[in-house]
Specification:
This protein has 363 residues and is of the alpha/beta class. It folds into three domains: 150 residues, FAD/NAD(P)-binding domain (3-Layer(bba) Sandwich); 53 residues, no CATH class; 97 residues, D-Amino Acid Oxidase, subunit A, domain 2 (D-Amino Acid Oxidase, Chain A, domain 2, 2-Layer Sandwich), CATH 3.30.9. The chain is 27% helix and 29% strand. The chain has eight helices and 19 strands. Strands 1, 2, 8, 9, 10, 11, 18 and 19 form an eight-stranded mixed beta sheet that branches. Strands 12, 14, 15, 16 and 17 form a five-stranded antiparallel beta sheet that branches. α1 runs parallel beside α5, α1 runs parallel beside α8 and α2 crosses α8.
Amino acid sequence: MDYDVLVVGAGVVGLACAAALSATRSVLVVERHDGICRETSSRNSEVVHAGVYYPEGSRKALSCVRGRHLLYERCDRLGIAAPRIGKVIVALGDSEAAELEGLLARGRANGVEGLTLVDRTELRRLEPGTDGDAALWSPWSGIVDSHRFAASLEAEAEAGGADVLFDANVVGADSTAGGWDVAVEHGGSRTRVRARAVINAAGLGQPAVSALVGIDAYPNYACKGVWFAVSPRHRGRVQRLVYPVGRATDGGLGVHICLDVGGGLRLGPDFEWVDGPPFDLYVDPAKRDVFWRAGRRLFAWLEPEDLTPDMAGVRSKPVPGPGMFRDFVVAMDLPGWITLAGIESPGLTSSLALAEEVAALLG
C-alpha cells in the first residue's frame, strides 16, 4: 500500500481526521481546491456551539459537547484565539419564552454546563443593547479563529508525516485485497493511489465521491447563507453572541449577531436552497432591509444604513427542507471505506470529536 489512509477533503473535519491519524499511520489528504478550507469551513459564523439544540444522545449532541472541550483545550494550548464570550438566546413574548424552557432541558440533558434562564433585567445586564423579555444564557458558547484552528490541524498532520495534495480530484475507486485502489486526477494526469482505508470527508462533494463506490444513501442539499457586516461605529456595543429562539430543524437558527475574534460584528446567516456546484456566492445588497428587520427585533439601535454586504457560504444539509432532523453520519459503509455525511452546524465545533470517532472505527 502507498498509504494507510487516504482522506478526501481538506475542510476542517478532513484535516482533523488527518491530524488524529498521522501520528500512527501514513496519511494522504486529497483536496480538489488550491488550499485548505475553501468551502463551508471558511465561510461560517466561527461559533463554538455549546450543544443546546440537538436531541439527547444524538451524534450531533455528543460530538458537539465533546468537540467543544477538545477545541478549547487545543486553542488554549496552541495560543489560538477562542474566547468563551457566551451566548444569549433571546425570547420575545410568552410563546418564545416558553420555548426557552425546552432548550434549557435539552441542553442540560446533553451535559451543557452553566445554562440558566434570565429575565429582562438580567438580559439587559448581560447585553444592555439587546431587547427581549427573557433569555437562555449559555456561558460555554464562544467563537474561534477558524482559519488558524484549521491551519494548526494541517500543520499537525504534516508534522506527523501526512502528505496533502491540492488541486486534485478523486475520480474512481476500486476495492482490492486489504484496501482501495483510488484514481486521482492532478495536474492534467491521472494516477492510482493504494490505501488501506479511505475517509470521505468531502463535504459538499461527499455524494459524488460516495457514488464512485455505489453509495447513494447520503444526499446533500445545498443551502446558501449570507451575512451583512454591522457598521464599525457599533464596535464594542455587543459583547456576546445574541441569537433569536431557533430550532436545529428549521434549516438555520435564525439571523443573529456574531462577533469575530477581532471584535467585528456580522448579522446572519439567512437560508436559501441553491443548485450547484458551482455555487454563486454573491451577496445581494437588496437583502439589506430583510436583514435589518430581523436584527431590529432584538436591537432597537440598528439602522438600515448600518448594514453592508459581507460574505456568503454554502453548507450541506442532509434533508431537503425544514422541520426534519437527521444526525451526523460517521459510518464504515464498506470495508475500509468511511463516510462522513451531513456535517452541517455544529461541524466546526464537533470536528475533533468526529475525528476521534473515525480513529476508533479504524481501530
